[in-house]
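Dear colleague,

As promised, here are the two records you asked about, laid out in our usual form so they can be pasted straight into your sheet.

NAME FIELD: protein one
SEQUENCE, THEN STRUCTURE:
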Amino acid sequence: MHFLKKTNQNLRLGVFDKATESLTSLLYFAKVMDMLKQVSSVLQTEQAKQLASALVAIDDVKTMQNFLRDVMTEKEITEVGARLEAAKMLQSGAKYTEIIAKTKLSSRTVARISDWMQNGMGGYEAVLKTEHHSHILPARAA
């Protein structure tokens, strides 16, 4: 009788665990979708469009470095650089522990980068793809 009682209890816990896992997945999906909506609306502001246009207009590294230094703190530049490095490392299959040790980012930030690489708007993928050809400058129309 004790065995049957224990087995029944374990079955209920197993069902509860599955339900909890499903609910957690659903909540995570809802959170990601909400984040995408927020980013999409932020990107539609006039200020965001102006920033994107300014960045696209810069065609050499030195000017970009100067612009970034004028509009960002050194800490912000370091943080964005570390995030890009983490994305490269994730793409190459590095473990979170290696990424954290090299970039000094938190595990949560690395997880967010991984999420954005998988479920985001494709920005990391586009930058990492073009970075392989960064030694070739695009031709500019005269």
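NAME FIELD: protein two
SEQUENCE, THEN STRUCTURE:
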Amino acid sequence: MLEEEDKPIIGACGIDCAKCRIYLAYTRGDVVEQRRIAEDLFGEGTEIPPEKITCEGCGGPLDVHWSPECKVMLCAHGRGLLVCSQCREFPCPDLEAFYSKGYEEAKENALRQREVGLEAWLRERRRTRERP
């Protein structure tokens, strides 16, 4: 069974939040990294404060989600799904458009989730992260 604490770290699209710089910096309270991310995204000397670089994953609260208006996430959750790979219409045109913007790893994750199931995919990811 999928644990409650696992839900926030699974991106609806297939992004592995446990590897995301924004998620990691925010959940670790790493203000220096949040500032670095702000500069990477918006340019050196940006007026965007580090505390605006927040996300607790698609299963976390929307008020700290990096992209609370994400069409992909809102669609999945609106259908009562945790992730897109659970949808009978997977992969849909919106998701394919997202993947085409450089999110190949997210696509590979979602395809693997579809193949083995979400729980098995999570077990695989944990084993991969635990390797030195």
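A couple of things worth noting about protein two: Helices lie at 21-28, 31-42, 71-78, 93-99, 104-116, 118-130. Residues 4-16+68-130 form one domain.

Best,
R.
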